TrEMBL record:
Composition-biased stretches (Low complexity): 36-48, 114-152, 177-188
Signal peptide range in chain numbering: 1-22
Record keywords, A-Z: Signal
Entry protein name: LysM peptidoglycan-binding domain-containing protein
Domain of life: Bacteria
Family: Belongs to the E.coli NlpD/Haemophilus LppB family.
PROSITE patterns: LYSM (PS51782), PROKAR_LIPOPROTEIN (PS51257)
InterPro entries in the record: Cell_wall_metabolism_enzyme, Dup_hybrid_motif, LysM, LysM_dom_sf, M23ase_b-sheet_dom
Organism: Candidatus Paraluminiphilus aquimaris
SMART domains: LysM
Length: 306
């Protein structure tokens, strides 16, 4: 009797242990990843639960362009305006860069005004000294002959100069009409997702907000603009989309599962650009940033209250 009771107890314990969890082979891929991530998080501490988004590149050190980089993404990681980075490297619109190209990230060296003035005064003094050594009579005669030579054909040359000025003004008007598209202000920002904010902006520690949601939830553009980056080359953001709205504002959408737009795509406000996922992180969420002239700003100060 006792032997049979022991056997029955062992069988009961085996059944309870087997029902306590799901077999690893029955887990879905993302569930397995989340379980592994949670176990790593518990062993490594609380820091892994709050990752630092987008490790900044150090301003001052040259950067070699890698495959998938864009000028906007590099400036995004440097935390500066894309036009500043372009100006430092003599890159003009449409800001094309190539793999292997070395970009200068430091600010240009500015010569002190006192030194430039001293150099200018020294050169002026040297010029005045050489001019004063010449006899006055020769300089006065040379001036007189020069004025006589110019005064004779002046009346005949006047109409020609007018015609040249008119013809030169025409291409200037054409080039102005073909200038870069105007910078349109954003009249109203839209929420990129309907989920709840689970982490707020915190200056350099957390450069945007995290919005909770379910895998596959739509991610929409916060305003009209142009996609200037779509890829997974920025560490800490997973599958990332960066939209340029005007010369002042960029918006970023990280940790997506699927990207529905590509670089160069023009998007409207509220248009779906991705689906929510957990790329580059351990839970399903959207990391959303707004940058004003390259600097992160709190999206909650611009998004409408809800």
């Amino acid at each position: 009797m006792r032997y049979s009771q022991h056997i029955s107890m062992l069988l009961l314990l085996t059944l309870l242990v087997g029902c306590a969890g799901t077999a690893p082979r029955d887990l879905k891929p993302w569930e397995a990843n989340q379980d592994a991530a949670s176990s790593r998080a518990s062993s490594s501490g609380a820091k892994s639960l709050k990752p630092e988004y987008g490790p900044k590149l150090s301003v001052g050190e040259p950067y070699t362009v890698k495959r998938g980089d864009t000028l906007y993404a590099i400036a995004f990681r440097l935390g500066i305006d894309f036009r500043q980075l372009a100006a430092r490297n003599g890159i003009k619109s449409p800001y094309t860069i190539s793999v292997g190209q070395v970009l200068a990230t430091s600010e240009p060296v500015v010569v002190a005004s006192g030194q430039s003035r001293a150099r200018g005064s020294a050169s002026a003094q040297s010029n005045s000294g050489t001019q004063s050594s010449k006899p006055k009579s020769k300089s006065s005669t040379s001036k007189g002959t020069a004025t006589k030579a110019v005064s004779k054909p002046a009346s005949a040359a006047t109409p020609k100069t007018k015609s040249v000025a008119r013809t030169a003004s025409k291409p200037q008007k054409k080039s102005a009409s073909k200038s870069v598209e105007p910078s349109r202000p954003v009249s109203r920002w839209r929420w990129p997702s309907r989920g709840k904010v689970i982490r707020t902006f915190a200056a350099n520690v957390h450069k945007g907000i995290d919005i909770a949601g379910k895998r596959g939830d739509p991610v929409t553009s916060a305003a009209a603009g142009k996609v200037v980056y779509a890829g997974a080359g920025v560490t800490g953001y997973g599958s990332l989309i960066i939209v340029k709205h005007n010369d002042t504002y960029l918006s970023a959408y990280g940790h997506n599962e699927r990207l529905l737009v590509s670089e160069g795509s023009v998007v409207n406000a509220g248009q779906q650009i991705a689906t929510m996922g957990s790329s580059g992180t351990n839970s399903v969420k959207l990391h959303f940033e707004l940058r004003r002239q390259g600097k992160p700003v709190d999206p909650l100060t611009l998004l409408p209250k809800r």
